[in-house]
Amino acid sequence: MADDQDRKNAEDEADEADEEREDAPAARDEADDEADDEADDEADDETEDEEEEPPPPPKKSAAKRAAATPPAPEAKRKRRAEPVKATLPPEKEIAAPSRQTLIMLGAMAGATLLMWGSARFACNAHPAQTRKPREVSTAELSRDPKGAALELQQRWSSYDFKGALELAKGPIAEELQKAQADCEKDSAGCESKKKALADQALATAALLSRGPGSAKVRVASRGGAGGNQTVVYTLEQEGAQWKVSGRGSEDPTPPPAPAPTPAPAPSGSAAPAPSAGH
Description:
With 278 residues, the protein is of the alpha+beta class.
């Protein structure tokens, strides 16, 4: 009897499984229908929402948007970094001044000294052809009275009587001829004196007065045949040359200057009142 009961239970379970398999497609169809209905309802709701949504507001211009936009907060200033103190390298790494710098400084110093020495040598150099002064003829020296008197005194003091006679006339020429005759009596002694006094006789001249055909010149000489003396020569013009015709012992004293006359009192002015003490 137990076996019959078990068999009956197995059959019942098999029948229930068959029924469930038969009901499964119908359940799936119902689920699909419900899903389609829900999708349709959602689509209808969205359409209604779109119809009821108001139109979007008009777009604002860029200027209005900029005015309406609140100003952005100022950017925070960046904090300035503190300067880093430079560290000095060791003395060996500095190498100042370098070898190249020392060489360049030495070259510049050498070039400067070389140019300075060359310039100094060129300024102080006197070639042989420029040491001797140019020979000036008697005609050139006698073009003015001052030069003629100075040259005559210089030649006379140096025992050059022949050259002095070219610039003299009258009594001065007679004195020179007499001195020349005395010198010729002792030609050897006169020649030695001439060589000894060639570079020692010095003279200066100053023009005192000058007229159309005559002039006066003061000449001061140091050394030479006449010693130290100051004479005033009188010169006369002969053509384009001036010749010494006479002389005096010293420069004539100029006349005293007249005393200045008092200025006349202006007309109409009252005479000064006498003082109380007179």
